[in-house]
Design goal:
Layout lengths: L2 H14 L41 E7 L2 E2 L3 E2 L2 E7 L8 E2 L8 E7 L10 H9 L3 E5 L18 H14 L12 E11 L1 H8 L11 E5 L17 E6 L7 H10 L4 E6 L13 H19 L2 H12 L4 E6 L1
Parallel strand pairs: 1-5, 6-7, 6-8, 8-9, 9-10, 10-11
Antiparallel strand pairs: 1-4, 2-3, 4-7, 11-12
């Protein structure tokens, strides 16, 4: 059997146990690639000058209909900073706030959908990020549950990213002129964490400047991290019942770039991401400041990360940023 076949069987064995458990619930032109920023022995991340927002935003939400190759429908939920007073529920098709906002591509877990993670993703949008989350055709809730299709999802995310970034130049689109298209991160949970790791390994998308992996592993996509330096933040529960903590830690250990790992001492496979509570607040504050540093160049946010991560004694933090 081929190496790819073996990897597919391994990922199937791992993720089959997570059906319904990953989430906790039963043509535009391509953007030109940036100049080559190949890694050296200990490369510094490409962090832009600090331009981070000084306030929270209201949050808007919209839907895009995408389809890769004509047979992979990828409905896309986009949360974004909106005009108006911060707080409250996301407003559908609200006016976009003034500014230029980095993009974060988020990948849901097996048996999940983007809305399952709204408690976290709306916090990112309120902090000044455009968050785009595809619903995958075979691993979302209500789909056929083909776990092997996870291996196709990094290409889905890259396809969706191309379309999101194209909105910055699309006549009449509300996001025209509002995207910081040179500052992009990828994030994902469980099977979406596998997808995210794949975007920095076998399916490296050089447009990505940072990654956030929740309860992820490398099965099927490997740990051959490649291309330009991209800081990584891993978040994993030490009591994860689906993806063993040791499996996530092994991927983290293989990252050659600036990195950190938030280990939730009593955390499971990720229910802390799905509903408000003390653990979600720790995860939200830590990830927001990581994204503010890696995509806005906010040095003060980087300094806050260790405090964010250990607040309340809910987690430990291994810091190599």
């Amino acid at each position: 059997m081929s190496r790819r076949g073996n990897a597919a069987l391994l990922i199937a064995a791992l993720l089959a146990a997570a059906v319904g458990g990953c989430s906790g619930k039963a043509p535009t032109a391509e953007r030109p690639h940036p100049p080559d920023r190949s890694t050296s022995a200990t490369p510094a991340p490409r962090v832009p000058e600090g331009r981070a927002p000084t306030k929270d935003f209201a949050v808007g939400v919209r839907q895009l209909k995408l389809n890769r190759d004509g047979d992979r429908p990828l409905p896309l939920t986009v949360w974004y900073p909106a005009a108006g007073e911060a707080g409250g529920d996301p407003e559908r098709s609200a006016a976009v706030a003034d500014g230029e906002f980095p993009v974060v591509m988020f990948s849901h877990g097996l048996g999940g959908r983007p809305d399952d993670y709204a408690a976290l993703l709306t916090r990112w949008a309120a902090a000044g990020f455009v968050v785009a989350a595809p619903t995958f055709p075979h691993t979302s809730r209500g789909a056929d549950g083909n776990v092997l299709d996870v291996l196709n999802q990094p290409a889905d995310v890259s396809y969706a990213l191309t379309h999101v970034l194209a909105l910055d130049a699309a006549a009449g689109d509300p996001l025209r002129g509002r995207l910081a298209a040179d500052r992009v991160a990828a994030a994902g949970h469980s099977a979406g964490g596998v997808t995210t790791v794949g975007l920095f390994t076998a399916g490296r998308d050089e447009r990505l400047d940072a990654g956030v992996v929740f309860a992820g592993t490398s099965l099927g996509v490997g740990t051959a991290f490649a291309g330009a330096t991209a800081p990584q933040l891993f978040v994993h529960g030490e009591r994860d019942e689906v993806v063993e903590y040791a499996a996530g830690k092994a991927v983290y250990d293989a990252v050659p770039w600036p990195k950190a790992m938030l280990s939730l001492t009593r955390g499971d496979h990720g229910r802390a991401l799905l509903s408000d509570g003390a653990a979600l607040r720790v995860v939200a504050e830590t990830t927001v400041d990581f994204l503010r540093w890696s995509l806005y160049g906010d040095a003060a946010a980087k300094d806050r990360i260790p405090t964010d991560a250990t607040r309340g004694g809910l987690a430990t933090f291994d810091n190599h940023l």
